[in-house]
Amino acid sequence: MNRAPTELQQHMVSWVMGATLLSILPHLTRMSPALSVLLLLLLAWRLHPGFKPPHWVVRSALVIGAVLLVFWLNGGIWGRLPGSQLLCAMVVLKSMELQRRRDALLIVSLGFFVAATWFLFDQSMLTFGYLIAATWLGLTSMIVLHREQLQGIDVPTLFRQGALLAAPAIPIAIALFFLFPRLSTPLWGIQGGELEGRTGLSDSMSPGDISSLFLDDSPAFRVKFEGPVPTMAERYWRGPVLWQFDGRRWTQIFYGGITAKREPDRRDADLRYEVELEPHQQKWIYALDYPAVYPEEARLTLDYLLRTKRPITSLKRYLIASDTDFIDNSATSKTLSLQALQLPADTAPQAHALAAQWRAAAVQAHPGQESDQMRMIVNTAMSYFHEQPFFYRLEMIPALQDPIDDFLFSSRIGYCEHYASSFTYLMRAAGVPARVVTGYQGGIDNGDYYLIRQSDAHAWSEVWIPDSGWTRVDPTSAVAPERVTSGSRSVIDAPGWLHADWLVDVRNRIDVMRYWWNRNVISFDAKSQSRLLQPLGLNYASHTRLLLIMLATTTLLGLGLYFWLRRSELTSTSDPLLKAWRELLRRLQRVGVNCQYSSTPGEVLRLANPQLQAESWAQLQLLVQRFLQLRYARQFDSPQITLARRVLRKRLQQFRPHPVHRTSLIFNRTSA
Amino acid sequence: MLRIGSLHLTSLQQGFENWLQRRGPLQPPLVIGYRQVYILPTGFGVTFGVLLFAMLFGALNYNNNAALFMSFLLATAAQISTFRSWRNLSGLRIERISAAPVFAGDDAQIQIQVQELQGLERPSLQFGSANDESVHGFSLSGWQSAQTTVPVTTHRRGWMELPRLVLATSYPLGLFRAWSYLQATQRCLVYPAPASHPPPMPAPAQSQQLQHQRLHTENEYEGLRDYRHGDNLKSIAWKSSARNLKLISRDEPPTNHNEYLFTLQDTQTVGTEQQLAILTSWLLQAEQGRKHYGLALPGLSLAPTHGQAHLHECLRELALWQA
Asked: Are A463 and A475 spatial neighbours (Cβ–Cβ below 8 Å)?
């Protein structure tokens, strides 16, 4: 009984290590295997019952070693990735000197901190749920650390006690979440230099780049249209525009990135929509042609891509209005015209020959009319792709010598990037200025919004015709028109059961939840907060107002919580007999007996005497006698006592007090 | 300057004392009410607060809503833990706080008797002196009553005022410490410390007369008396007990019939404390040797007999003796 309260017992160590493991686990999955294995081994060592704290020299060596390892693995120790790894390492190393309760408590609370830093990488609903569970375990282990003895307490009970701290906190935490005044601009800079885990389209295109995205089911972005929704075949989401070709790879050029000289008028915009872009770590955002209204931090380039100053590292929501009828005839400068005809030297002789043939036919058909010649060349090329045995497939045949010629004349099997690339090549060879545009095409209607997945990534071409400017041409539509009208999955069956229809359906449903989560939780900010009180008639919620409302709400919730806790603790007892007794007391209170839970059975009897009918009181008296006998029985666990207690419980539950009638009271008084 | 300072301090202390008194009784028996529970964050609680603050500011700055929610959740859970800490103390009944007499220099064991009245589990309770770090932990389950002790060092013989005591808990999270001030009902009696090397006991007085008288005053069954709590089982006279339908003990005969009457002069030393120390050790020796002994101090005389009660009576006189 008189154990020193700071001494740690083995089960406490296990609880603390368990909580630590749970909070660093997400980080372990992301860090280098060498470091995570090292940390896991250290945890396992500390868990071993025969653990002796290592000499301070060893501990210091471990700390220095961990810092060096993080430095070596990341090339630095600043930034969120090395920073979080360092935090994990420190928490684990702190457990090497875990001896007293204070150390254990500190480790658990550092675990909370480490868990919270994981949200810098991932704020999805699943992660959130997981880390709330980790917090629950952390709180429970803090409770365990404050119990000197654990006899008779099972693990579920401990978890329930942890839940009794965490669960009532949820409503208040939600109120604070929505009402605590937010910062509209950050107090200190947000580092944008660090990029990891890029997903989706890149700023260049080689064969295989886009087809590799076909299997990626993850959402790229979600769109909610206000007003008319364009058909699927019209939904070309513009990404990087590629001008430069080296025979294999298409890349962007500097001139394409300069600011547009002419922008669509916002009054002509016919589509309005809100995009919710998943972080892709790139410096652009997606829109339909041609954006007339776009967020402040973006800039419209000469090739009508919306570029941002900083990479998109967290979920981004923005409003766009597009003018679909805008004509882009900006490629009039000589540099750009030349760039749009650029081809690597000495490549694809067969393609050049074919293009020359088309050009000659077009010049013959429309002498002197450049625009018509170009249109004819485009149409010839499209029918060529349509009529020749081209196949739209995921698997590709590796090019032997020349990627363009091999594809056009021998393999003829490819994905959209092969068609866009070879089509643009042919156009340039035939003297038609052309460029490759990458982006997404289509997207499915997922109820409230349209979902565009990574698998919807696409590449197409644009050709420049003097009288109509840059015009979109999608060679894929000549080979597999369903790709454009019904989406990528309609043409190619994805391999494996993972892409079975019903599973895709389930995933679409999950995405609806994710969308809700992103919309209402993750992207809630100062702006949404200021609109929060509109339903209450307050158009703008200032910080003072918010603070006042927050204080009022949390006070009210706190009071409610207080009464709920008081009530629940009194009725919640593991002893069924006592529970029945308390329920009986409540019934007595209802008929006007002024008894409390803390009243002794004798008191209850005395208090009930004037309020109950004689017969009812006598019954109560018997029950009380029996209750006293059995509650304080010597042989607590004998089978007879257990049975008797069960019987008494039933009788306590069945007892209904009959109060003295008001009329009879009056009668008694008058007669007395 | 110092004087003014100390005066100021004592008036502050007095004020604190009065304030405590106004909030409720300090001496048992009492039931800890809500006005008698004080609560403040612990050192770890402050560290935790700093950590939470860092989390909150980071989350606000990066508008990281998941981390923000987590810091609010932890902060609210910490707040709820204050309720649990308070509930862990409030409603406990303190039956008694007392300390058995000890010899000066030994630790007095302050004993608290606590009873749970509300059927709630009360884990991780700590009992200790208010201005001392050493505490003793114990737990209570519903309707249980328990006692625990905390040692206090003693220095001088006589009545010792017991320090202010606290019943505290930092359950459930260790972020806050709730405590109640308590005061013992009685002072603790401190006996003089026995001398380490006492001179030999003086020669016993040959008083057959006394012995004779005593035999007559006892009841007719020689050497038999009613069972007293604490009597050795072996000393119970089972046959007589059966006859009388109550437990009867055989009075253990003294090993010899010599009687000792100790006086201050017998110690043959000067200095009251020294004399008292020697007397104390003689009393202990005599009791251990099952001798009959008495005490004769100026103005006070205790007739020779033996037994624990007699020993304590003698020691009490020594403890409170004023020259």
From this structure: no
Distance CA B124, CA B172 (A): 8
Q: Report CB contact under 8 Å: A578, B119.
A: yes
A·B CB contacts under 8 A: 166
User: Are A177 and B55 within 8 A, CB to CB?
Assistant: no
Residue A99, Ramachandran bin (φ over 0: left; ψ between -120 and 50: alpha; else beta): alpha
pLDDT recorded at residue A4: 45
Residue A500 confidence class, pLDDT cut points 50, 70, 90: low
In this predicted structure, the answer to whether residue B300 has a pLDDT above a threshold of 90 is no
Catalytic residues of A: 416, 458, 474
Cα separation of A466 and A164, whole Å?
73
Q: Which residues of chain A neighbour B44 with C-beta distances below 8 Å?
A: 102, 105-106
Which of B68, B80, B118 has the CB atom closest to A597's CB atom?
B118
Question: pLDDT band at residue B216, thresholds of 50, 70 and 90?
Answer: very low
Nearest Cα residue in chain B from A136: B74
Residue A148 clears pLDDT 50, i.e. is over it: yes
Mutation target for A interface from B55, B56, B70, B133: give the one with most A CBs within 10 A.
B70
Interface contact A151, partner B, CB < 8 A: no
CA A293 to centroid of chain Cα atoms: 27
Q: In A, which residues are within 8 Å of B139 by CB distance?
A: 1, 147-149
3-state DSSP assignment of residue B1: coil
Given a cut of 90, is residue A322 above it in pLDDT?
yes
B-chain residues near A115 (CB < 8 A): 70
Residue A9: partners with Cβ closer than 8 Å, 6 or more residues away = none
Structural domain boundaries in chain A = 10-167, 204-501, 576-671
Pairwise CB contact (< 8 Å): B67 & A116: yes
- Determine contact, residues A293/A177, Cβ cutoff 8 Å: no
In this predicted model, what pLDDT tens digit does every residue of A443-453 receive, in sequence order? 888 888 999 98
Q: Which among B76, B135, B138 has CB closest to A1?
A: B138
User: What confidence tier does A26 reach under pLDDT thresholds 50, 70, 90?
Assistant: very high
- Taking the CA of residue A182 and the nearest CA in chain B, the distance in Å comes to 6
Separation between Cα atoms, residue A436 and residue A245, nearest integer Å: 10
**A540 — pLDDT class (breaks 50, 70, 90):** low
* Chain B CB within 8 Å of residue A169 CB: yes
pLDDT of residue A321: 93
- In this complex, do A165 and B66 lie within 8 Å of one another by their Cβ atoms? no
Token pair of B161 as six digits: 């005022």
Q: Which two tokens stand for residue A518?
A: 């992103």
- What is the DSSP code string of A31-85? S-HHHHHHHHHHHHHHHSTT--PPPHHHHHHHHHHHHHHHHHHHT-S-SHHHHHH
Radius of gyration of chain A (CA): 36
Nearest to A123 among B54, B64, B72 (CB): B64
Helix ranges restricted to H, chain B: 2-23, 43-61, 65-89, 208-217, 238-244, 272-288, 308-320
Distance, CA of A209 to CA of B96 (rounded, Å)? 82
Sign of CA dihedral A442, A446, A447, A448: negative
Q: Which of B59, B81, B142 sits opposite A165 (nearest CB)?
A: B81
Which CATH entry fits the domain spanning B26-191: 3.30.200.20, 1.10.3210.10, 2.60.40.3770, 3.40.630.10? 2.60.40.3770
Interchain pair A148, B70: CB under 8 A: no
